[in-house]
Every structure is written in C-alpha cells, then in structure tokens.
Design goal:
This protein is of the alpha+beta class. The chain folds into 2 domains: 60 residues, no CATH class; 116 residues, no CATH class. It is built from 4 helices and 6 strands, in the order ααααββββββ.
C-alpha cells in the first residue's frame, strides 16, 4: 500500500462512516502527521456535506403510503375469486399438485403497481403450506408473488377456496353460503 493510497482509503472510509470520530483521527495521525494535512478542515466539512446529501437523497426511499386514492365505495368486484382461480390455473406451474386452497378477505393496500386489492391465498404444496399474494385492480391480477412478511398474509383469517368447481361458491369469500 502506498502512502497516498493509504490516506485516500482512510479518507474515503471516513467520509462514509462519519470520520469525525477519534479512531479515524488516530489512523490519520499514523499515516500523515497533522502538520501535513492542510485540507483536514475541508475534509471534515466535506464529510458533513456528504452525510447531509445522503440523507436528502435517501429520504425519498422512505415515503409512507398515504391514502392518495380513496378506497372504492363499492369494494372489490365480487368475481375476484374467479379471477384468482383462473390466474392460478394458468400461471402457477403444476397447480394440480397443490391442494387445500384457502382464501382471505381482500384488503385495500398500496403496492408497487399502485392502490390495489390484496388477496392472500394459501395452499399445500407437497405437504408444505405456501401463501401467495394477489394484487387486483378492476377485474385483473396486476401483480402476484409468494407472500412476504409485509403482506401480513399469516395474520389473516381464511376460508376454503375451491379452484375447480366454483371459486365463489358456498364457503368461499364472497360466496352465497348454504341456503337453509
């Protein structure tokens, strides 16, 4: 490691780690005596500027999802079960091997594709329980994925979901239920 390269490595690491602490000063003192660091104050100021710019630049990444669109007064289209069943049959490979499908009530959420209805479906895949999240706008699935923790599918209440006979039939969410 050359003398200049070592100083540059320490300065770069210091800028990103907030080098105004004593450990970095001690390392700088070992590499270059204080009398030989004419730009020391400039570098401290530069480190502060870099940190402020990083905070400003990264503040856009923490945008909170505020309800910019009101939830539709009508709610989700009642045929969402059929839409999801069709999507599962045509998109998930080997969907015939899955069983014990269950579906949760739709929730109005903000996703990557904008405001959508989130419907969680869980099923058994070769003895393992899987959860899938479907994002629905209008009468189509705009995004779908294996559920992640932020989808909160594990905290939902589920009811049976029959893909083959009638996805919105008795016992399914939005279904008519048994007639007595």
């Amino acid at each position: 490691m050359s003398y200049v390269g070592g100083v540059n490595d320490v300065l770069i690491a210091g800028i990103f780690a907030g080098f105004a602490n004593e450990r970095h000063e001690a390392v700088l003192d070992q590499l270059m005596p204080r009398g030989m660091r004419p730009g020391r104050d400039l570098l401290h100021a530069l480190g502060g500027v870099v940190r402020i710019l990083a905070l400003v630049a990264l503040s856009g990444c923490s945008d909170l999802a505020m309800p910019k669109e009101a939830m539709p007064a009508m709610g989700i289209d009642p045929s969402y079960g059929s839409v999801i069943a069709g999507y599962i049959r045509t998109t998930l490979k080997d969907s015939g091997a899955y069983d014990a499908f269950e579906i949760a009530e739709p929730r109005w959420v903000h996703s990557v594709k904008g405001w959508s209805w989130l419907v969680c479906v869980r099923f058994q895949d070769r003895g393992k329980q899987r959860s899938y999240a479907f994002f629905i706008q209008e009468k189509s699935v705009v995004d779908a994925r294996y559920a992640v923790q932020s989808d909160a599918c594990g905290a939902q209440a589920y009811s049976p979901f029959n893909l083959v006979i009638d996805p919105t039939g008795p016992g399914a969410v939005g279904g008519q239920g048994p007639l007595y």
